[in-house]
Amino acid sequence: MDISRQDIKHEVDNIIEDESPAISVPGYDPSIQPQPGEEGRALLKVDLYLLPFIVLCFCFLQFDRTNLSNALTDTFAKDIHIGNPNINLAQTLFTVGFVITELPFNMISRYVGAERFLPVTMFLWGVATWSQVFVRNASGLYAVRFFIGALEGGYIPSFALYLSKFYTNRELALRYAIFWASNSFAGILGGPLSIGLLSLRGRGGLHGWQWLFLIGLFDMFPWSRHVLLPSNSASTHKRFFGKSYNIFTERESSLLITRVIKDDPTKGIRYGKPVLPSHILQTFTDWRLYGHLVAAFLSMIMISPMNTYAPSIIKSLGFTSLQANGLNSVGSACALMFSVSLAFSSDKVGERGIHIAIGYLWGAAGLLWLALAAKGIDKWILYGGVVWTQMGMGSAQAINAAWLTTKMEDHQRPVALAAYVMSIQLANFPGNQLFRAKDAPRYHHGLIIAASCAIFAAFVILVWKLFYRLFDGKDQGVRAKSGVIEFGHSRTEGSDMA
């Protein structure tokens, strides 16, 4: 046990001896006794008030990340004189920017509060997205995509950490799935939206793709994020156009905070404290981190090329540009239902590893469907392979993040979640190079490589499940039981993440 862990254990011992002074969190009341249904009603407020708004914010991020794929079905590549190698490099630079800022932005967000920091970055990346309207060559595209990626760094783990303030560990997989389902929401809306925007070609002297990039203007109004998002359940007094309002009552705030801290006392110990360099070192020397990172990396190699080229693949089957963008939304709708159902099942039965493997293998099956289908096969059958792939890619992302969150103590979570999202983004480096122009339009070789990686990711996560069974108290996380806090060997009472 290293020094940091000993310090945390000492603080936990203080909780056992005198619970109230040890945890100094506004609204925390260990003596509060909820009435039947009272916690559920308070939790429903979080589900209906905060979660949808966070999902909406994430949708705008996803629009900005994927609108390039819709632009490629228009005359974008021709107008600025670029080809597949330029597009792949631009996407790689986007990932470089994202990875560089991921950890520092997440640490800043933890210190000043996601509700304060993220609106600033959203405004700036909205400016960068909007500036794509003026791109005229490959160099301009490289610069803009790099800055969009850099300004989006830290957004995903910061909001994932923010959500953990309101939900117990056993409730996170479903909520994370809804959060990450923003990818699917954006895909569902992005297809019809792109059809409408691309059809404006010639209006105002703009190309269709220029109208598409103008959507970045919506990200330039970040004030509403700060107005609507509280720093925690107790800090819900807000002012809007001079009028004040409270999201939760005082009792609801106390119920929400107390249930989360009782579920995982480390959230109370580290409340209001910054991430220290020793915490970064401790997190990256924790063996539990790496199975989740490797599995995420391998499983997500498929997502960048599919996000970028799926509309083009659909178009190559014999559909028009507008039809391809519309049909691309179907896969996103199916992905939304599949990912949320998978996460709901995972929370319901208290199991993580097998559910994650199912998600990975589902995507692999779709990739092989596309790669190995015989020539001359009906275009609708091939389109079915695209939809199947889109259903699986990223479907287990939220469950894996929730499992990792549960296994890490609170002072490790900002670093662990940033590392997790970084591993997903790093998968874009090989992913962006998979689909080569000489392999178009079906990209057989790239699809087979991506499928192989997803299959191996399923193997890795199942091995990690076995390791947890043997060495780390099943799949469980941090909890308080019978007056003793057990680190890395226990779980939330009433759940069995096995």
Describe the structure.
The chain has 498 residues and is an all-alpha fold. It has a single domain (31-486), classed as Growth Hormone, Chain: A, CATH 1.20.1250.20. The chain is 68% helix and 3% strand. The protein contains 24 helices and four strands. A two-stranded antiparallel sheet has the order 1-2. A hairpin with a 2-residue loop joins strand 1 (237-240) and strand 2. Helix 16 (288-299) runs antiparallel to helix 24 and helix 17 (303-316) packs across helix 18 (321-349). The chain is globular, with a radius of gyration of 23 Å. It starts with a helix and ends in a 12-residue tail after the last strand. 56% of the residues are buried. The model is unreliable at 1-6, 8-21, 222-227, 236-242 and 478-496 (pLDDT under 50). This is Vitamin H transporter, putative. InterPro entries: MFS (IPR011701), MFS_dom (IPR020846), MFS_trans_sf (IPR036259). Keywords: Membrane, Transmembrane, Transmembrane helix, Transport. The chain crosses the membrane at residues 117-135, 141-164, 176-197, 209-229, 289-306, 326-344, 356-374, 380-403, 447-467. Pfam families: MFS_1.
